[in-house]
Amino acid sequence: MPPQKTKSRSRASVLLIYTGGTIGMIRDHKTGTLKPVDFQQISDEVPEIGKFNYKIDVVSFNPVIDSSNMGSEHWIRMAEIIKKNYEKYTGFVILHGTDTMAYTASALSFMLENLSKPVVITGAMLPVREVRTDARENLITAIEIAATIEKGKAVVPEVCVYFDYLLFRGNRVTKVNASKFEAFASMNLPPLAEAGVHLRFNRNLILKPTGKKLKLNLGVDSSVGVIRLFPGMTRQWFASQLRCEGMKAVVLETYGSGNAPTHDWFLEELELAARHGMVIVSVSQCRGGSVEQGVYATSAGLERLGVIGGSDMTIETALVKLMLLFGKKLSPKEVARQMVKPLSGELTI
């Protein structure tokens, strides 16, 4: 459906893409359950939006979805909306549920290649109509960030997540709390901006545009998975994950800085999977820090087998990056090469 136009005194312009999530829910006082509403009802609850000297238009998913139902087809839809409207707006704000927000932010950071405008994803822990809601501040500041330009150029030309007064790189965040307003964290990269009395941007961290034309990467191959190591894991269980039919890659959630068991059976199963062309990426179970294969004897075995050290990528980003690289029809060897290369600021060299 085409964007719905709101009142505007055009200077900067922002397109809001409403996908659903808690931010757009209201409580049914008869049943106590939450149900989605349209964006007009959200804007009625946040009249401050009308005070911006921006042109603000809205396009909405129909129907809106809970982020637990988010899939690659929805990532593609968001990317296509941005591409279609790219020349018309200063920036974009996506309203999204929090549960899978980090996956969507990571996906869009790779799908929108050569991005030179802000794509700010936000949501809320409480519905917009609740008395103590965080929805109003998150929405208002996300719009302001998306519209911020200096000398005709966007200050934050990348995919970001704004939540609870902090702006994070989208492919660096993970949801860390299910009940606090401080729901997201970026353990391995400081915030790109902080909102207080003023918006303060950490300009040295913000990605610089390539100057090239926006390009969409919409191929997604979901033949990937995640295996979290745990004490007492059996060979039968581990092998069943690796031998899942059609599986092309696995994110291995290892201990600490990339450590794993040294049992013969464990290494044998990994060697067999690698020999059959599976790409295996080691990412730490710890939210902060980095995989450093070979530092301890318990990670040296992975190094010898060709397991790829995922540096300080989040689990969400490593998984989505594999989906999109295989979606480009790259060979396993080329996928492995690209996994250790920062494509959109997702890892530290």
Q: What can you tell me about this protein's structure?
A:
This protein is globular. It is 27% helix and 22% strand. Helix 2 packs across helix 3 (101-111) and helix 8 runs antiparallel to helix 9. It has two domains: 4-216, Rossmann fold (3-Layer(aba) Sandwich); 224-339, Rossmann fold, CATH 3.40.50.40. The protein contains nine helices and 21 strands. The protein is α/β, with parallel strands linked by helices and 349 residues long. The strands form six sheets. A nine-stranded mixed beta sheet has the order 1-5-2-6-8-11-12-15-16, with helices on both faces. Strands 18-19-20-21 form a four-stranded parallel beta sheet, sandwiched between helices.
Helix/strand order, N-terminal first: EEEEHEHEHEEHEEEEEEEEEEHEHEHEHH
- What are the segments in which pLDDT stays under 50 over at least 5 consecutive residues? 4-10
Number of spatially distinct domains:
2
**Numbering strands along the chain, what is their spatial order in the largest sheet?**
1-5-2-6-8-11-12-15-16
| Top CATH class of the largest domain | Alpha Beta
Give the CATH architecture of the largest domain: 3-Layer(aba) Sandwich
Give the beta-strand count.
Answer: 21
Q: What's the tally of helices?
A: 9
Terminal-residue CA separation:
42 Å
Shape descriptor reads: globular
Structural class by sheet pairing and helices = alpha/beta
Q: CATH topology of the largest domain, anyone?
A: Rossmann fold
> For this structure, what is the CATH homologous superfamily of the largest domain?
L-asparaginase, N-terminal domain
Percentage beta strand: 15-25%
* Helix percent band: 25-40%
